[in-house]
Amino acid sequence: MQPMYYIGLDVHKRKISYCVKEGSGRIHAEGSISATRPELDHWMRSLPQPWSAAMEATMFTGWIYDHLKPHAATLKVALFVLGRPL
Q1: How many CB atoms lie within 10 A of CB 59?
Q2: Contact 72, 51 (CB under 8 A)
Q3: pLDDT tens-digit map of 19-60
């Protein structure tokens, strides 16, 4: 069975910060990329497989979700209110 990699995304208008973790919790990679489709495509090609990601709901999340969804094992969006999941 292949190990799953878990990705947390912090979405902003011009930048997406990410942290990729192994199932053990060890950080595999972290950094940030420009919030553009070509940059997301380049970044996705560097990801270990399979991967699952989660991101917060923002006004910029929609197109990013649509772009990542076909490539992810799972992709989730969460709404946070005052720092707590809703």
Answers
A1: 7
A2: yes
A3: 999 999 999 999 999 999 999 999 999 999 999 999 989 899
